[in-house]
Amino acid sequence: MPAQKPNIVDIARKAGVSISTVSRVLNGKAEQFRISEKSQQKVRETAKKLNYVPNQFAANLKSGKSNTIALLIPSLSNPFFADIASEINAEVRNRGYLTIIGDSDENKDIENDELLQMQSRNIEGLVIAPCDQNWKAIKKLHDQGLPVVCIDRYFENLDIPYVSTDNYEGAVMGTKHLLENGHQRIACIQGVPESVPNKLRIKGYKDAMIAAGLKDYQIIGDEFSVQNGYKEMKLLLQQHEKPTAIFALSNTIAIGCIKALREENLSIPEDVSLITFDDHPFLDYLATPLTCITQPTREICRIAIKYLFFMLGNKEIKQSQVLLKPEVKYRKSVKRL
Amino acid sequence: MPAQKPNIVDIARKAGVSISTVSRVLNGKAEQFRISEKSQQKVRETAKKLNYVPNQFAANLKSGKSNTIALLIPSLSNPFFADIASEINAEVRNRGYLTIIGDSDENKDIENDELLQMQSRNIEGLVIAPCDQNWKAIKKLHDQGLPVVCIDRYFENLDIPYVSTDNYEGAVMGTKHLLENGHQRIACIQGVPESVPNKLRIKGYKDAMIAAGLKDYQIIGDEFSVQNGYKEMKLLLQQHEKPTAIFALSNTIAIGCIKALREENLSIPEDVSLITFDDHPFLDYLATPLTCITQPTREICRIAIKYLFFMLGNKEIKQSQVLLKPEVKYRKSVKRL
DNA sequence: TGATTTTGCACAAACGTTTGTTCAAACGTA
DNA sequence: TACGTTTGAACAAACGTTTGTGCAAAATCA
Question: What are phi and psi of B134, to 5 degrees?
C-alpha cells in the first residue's frame, strides 16, 4: 500500500510534464524558467496528492549544498551548553538551515569522530566549543574553506573566528570582588584545565591575587562538574588553614561546593564565601543566592551565527575574534570580612 | 591546493584497483568478497593519504540507509528535555547511529516542519515528545513503517509505542502528600494543557482531591515555563482565600512560584507549601529544598532506544507502551498544618 | 508571408556511492 | 591434457535529484 516513497519522476509522469519541470517548480525556480501557471499548478497538485517529500540526499549529492550546519559541544547536559544549543538551533532554523548537534562528552576522540560524521554529511558550516587542544582537525577544516566559528572555547593563536566572553576580565572582576570584601585566603576550583576559558580565568584570578600582594593562591580541580566541586571542597575543608572564600569556575562546580559545605554544616557566606562563573535561573533562589559572573550567552550565539552566515555568503568580516564583556551579578554569597 | 574532496574514484585510480574494490574494502566487506590483503592494504593506504571522507549522501542515496535517527523535543532549553537529549544522543551513538535533534519550541507548525526535514533526510527512526495533538503526522509516519517511539508525551489511543512516567500516579502521590499534611486549599499550576502528561497529572490531582472530599480544587496556568509559574502565583496571591499549598507541574513553573512568593515576602513552607514535578540537581540547595516527584529519565531514554532498535531490527516487541513509576523525593517545602 | 524572437519545456548528463553480474586467471582434479 | 572450481576483481547499472543545453511552438515583427 505505501508503494514506496514517491519521487519527482512519479510526479512528472502523473502530471504529464518532464522531470526538470517538476524540479524547477518545486524549487521555486518556476519564474526563472518560465514555467506556465498551468504546469505549476499541476505539479504542485500532484506533489501534494502523492505526499511527496524531497530526498535531500539526492538533492545534496547533485547540488553539493546540504543546508546543514553543525554544532559540536562538550556536553549537552551542562545547562550552559544546553542553552547555547537551544539558541543556535533557533537562529539557524530562522535562516532556513538545519542544525545537527553533536556532543563530544569532553572527549577528543569522540569529537574527532563526530567531526568526521559531520564532514560525511557535507555540512556547510561549523559552530564548535572545541575540546582542549584538538586544534589540528579544526584548523584543517578551516583551511579547507569550511566556515568555522568557535564559541566559548577557542584557540588563541589561530585565525579561526571565535565569539566568547572575556574570561580573564571576568575572573579579575570576581576575584577583586572577593578581595574588596576583605578576603585573602581565596581558593579557586577550576574546570577542564586545558580549555582556554579556564586558563584565562585562572590567569585572571592569579593576576588579581598577585596584584593584591597575595602569593598563596590555590588552584585545584579538573572538571566542570558537580562531583569535582564536591570533591575539591571536601579536600579544602580538611586543610589546616581553610580558605575564607571560594571562586568556582562554573555553577556546576559551585553546586558541588554547596553540597560539601552543607554536609559539614557550614553556611554561606557566614563560614565560607562563594562566587561562581555562569548564571542560572535557580541561583537566585538558593539558600544563599549566589553571586556570579554572567556571560552574555544569547549574544554570543547570535554573533557566532551572524559570522557563520557572513562567511557562508563569502562576505568578508572585519573583526572575527570577539570577546564580550561579562558582568558580576551581586547576590548574597560573599561576606564582608 | 585542496583540489576538491577526494572520492573513491580517485582512490581507485591511485591504488590501481576498481571502484567496487575500494568500496568493499572501505565498508569492511573485503573478506566477503575475497579481496586480497595486498589490495586491501593499498586501498586503505591511499584512502588515508588522500584524507578520504566518505560522502554519506551518495552512500545513502544508493543504499537507502541513512544511519540516522531523529529526536524531536518541544524545548531544548528546558532542563528536563536537555537531559533527555543528552542521554538519547549517547545511547544512539553507542549503537553506531547519528542523532539529529530538533526543537519544536512547543509549536505544532515547527514540529511538522522539522518532521518533514527529517523525512527528507531519510531517518530510520524517530524518538519524539510530540506537541499536543499533532498525532496525524506522526501516525502517518508510523503507518508508513517508520519506527517511532514517543517519549514523555504520547498518544493514549494509538498503537504507537511510548515510554513515559505514570504521571497520573505521580500526581496522586504528590497531592496525597499535601493532603496528608493537612492541606486543603491546594492549587495546581499546570503546563501545556493538551499534553498527555499534563492531562494525566491534572486528573491525578483532581481525583485525589475529590477522594478527599475536596471539591474546590483549582487548576490554572498553561505553559511549562518560569513566566507562567510566576504569573499564576501572583494571581493566586491576590485571591481572597489564598491556597496553603501549590502543586507545580514542572520545576520551571516552581521557580516562577518561588520568585513570586519571594517578591511578596512569603516564605516556603511557612506561608505556602510547594511541591513540584521533576527533580533537578539544584533543588536540594534552594532556600527551601523543594519536595518533588521525580521521573526516571535515564531509564525512559534507555528503554525508548532499546525499543527503537528492536523495531529497526524488525524484531517484535511484546509490550511497547510502558509507564515507569515516579517517586516522591521528600525535602523541606511542605509544612504540616 | 517569412524571419525573428520569445515562451515553455524536454532531454540527458552528472553527483559519489553500492551492489548484482560477469569474467579472467590460477588452481585442483581426473 | 582437459575440465571444473575457486579466487580476485572489474564492469556497469542504479539511487533521486539538479542543471546546462537544445528545440519546438507561439508570438512578434518586418
Answer: -85, 50
Residue B53 to residue A98, Cβ atoms within 8 A = no
Residue B7: DSSP 8-state: -
d(Cα B51, Cα B1) in Å, to the nearest integer?
13
pLDDT in tens, B212-246: 999 989 999 999 999 999 999 999 999 999 999 99
Given phi > 0 = left and psi -120 to 50 = alpha, else beta, which region is A306?
alpha
Task: Round the average pLDDT of chain A to a whole number and report it.
Answer: 94
Beta bridge partners of B149: B127
Place of cell 549517547: B90
Chain C: positions less than 7 Å from a protein CB are 7-20
Supply B34's cell numbers: 575475497
Closest Cβ–Cβ partner in B122, B255, B280 for A55: B122
pTM above 0.85, yes or no: yes
Q: Are B60 and B66 in contact (CB under 8 A)?
A: yes
Segment A192-205, tens digit of pLDDT: 999 999 999 999 99
Q: What's the helix, strand, coil split of chain B in %, to 5?
A: 45, 15, 40
User: Measured between CB atoms, which of B53, B122, B255 is closest to A57?
Assistant: B122
Cis preceding-peptide flag for A79 (omega within 30 of 0): no
- Length B17 CA → D1 C1' (Å): 34
**Chain A contact for B9 (CB, 8 A cutoff):** no
Q: How confident is the model at residue B3 (pLDDT cuts 50, 70, 90)?
A: low
Dist CA A328 CA A276 (whole Å): 10
Asked if B123 is an interface residue toward chain A (Cβ–Cβ < 8 A), one would say no
Q: Which member of B75, B98, B287 has the closest CB to residue A287?
A: B287
Nucleotides of D under 7 A from a protein CB: 7-20
Tell me whether residues A60 and B57 touch, CB distance under 8 A: yes
Q: List strand D contacts in A 202-261 (CB < 7 A).
A: none
What pLDDT is attached to residue A1? 38
Whole-angstrom Cα distance, residue A206 to residue A220?
A: 13
Q: Are A151 and A162 in contact, with CB atoms under 8 Å apart? A: yes
At a CB cut-off of 8 Å and minimum separation 6, what does B204 contact? Answer: B167, B168, B169, B170, B171, B172, B174, B175
Determine whether the interchain pair B120/A56 forms a contact, defined as Cβ–Cβ distance below 8 Å: yes
**DSSP-derived pairing of the beta strands B245-248 and B98-103:** unpaired
Q: Measure the N-to-C terminal CA separation of chain B; round to a whole number of Å.
A: 78
* Strand A218-220 to A186-189 pairing: parallel
